[in-house]
Amino acid sequence: QVQLVESGGGLVQAGGSLRLSCAASGRSFSSYAMSWFRQVPGKEREGVSCISSSDGSTYYADSVKGRFTISRDNAKNTVYLQMNSLKPEDTAVYYCAAKRRITTVQAMCVMVRYWGMDYWGKGTLVTVSS
């Protein structure tokens, strides 16, 4: 069983930066691919970025590519999302999610409605003002 707790959200002006953290508890964290999703009212959850458990493969949604960076520290059981050059359209609740077995990180982020996730955090709110 894995529990995920997000932190680091808040209010930031457009063009600013935030770093989100997701702390995981439970066994075999290093065996899980990790991901960040976001959701705004009236829209489906969007896969922002995913990272593999071991080989370092990453995926980024086109909307955040070049601005966001996902990383993980298995010794600390934590995954991060560094968000730079934030835009008002980045405003959302950001969720951390984990999956033990994946095909590719792209599939993990893009095909969540089909493949699902093993564990979800409760989310942290990011608000970007204009």
Q: Name the structural class.
A: mainly beta
Query: Outline, from the CA principal axes?
Result: globular
Question: What oligomerization state is this entry in?
Answer: single chain
Rg over C-alpha atoms, rounded to the nearest angstrom: 14 Å
> Low-confidence stretches at least 5 residues in length (pLDDT < 50)?
none
Mean pLDDT: 95
List the helices and strands and how they pair.
Blueprint: E1 3-7, E2 10-13, E3 18-25, E4 33-39, E5 46-51, E6 58-60, E7 68-73, E8 78-83, E9 92-99, H1 105-110, H2 112-115, E10 119-120, E11 124-129
Parallel strand pairs: 2-11
Antiparallel strand pairs: 1-3, 3-8, 4-5, 4-9, 5-6, 7-8, 9-10, 9-11
Could you describe the 3D structure shown?
This protein has 130 residues and is mostly beta strands. The protein contains two helices and eleven strands. The strands form two sheets. Strands 2, 4, 5, 6, 9, 10 and 11 form a seven-stranded mixed beta sheet that branches. Strands 1-3-8-7 form a four-stranded antiparallel beta sheet, with no helix packed on it. The longest helix has 6 residues, at 105-110. The radius of gyration is 14 Å and the shape is globular. The model has no long low-confidence stretch (mean pLDDT 95).
Which features characterize this protein?
130 residues; 2 helices; 7-stranded mixed β-sheet; mainly beta; 11 strands; 4-stranded antiparallel β-sheet
In short:
By secondary structure, this protein is mainly beta. It has helices spanning 105-110, 112-115; strands spanning 3-7, 10-13, 18-25, 33-39, 46-51, 58-60, 68-73, 78-83, 92-99, 119-120, 124-129. The termini are far apart.
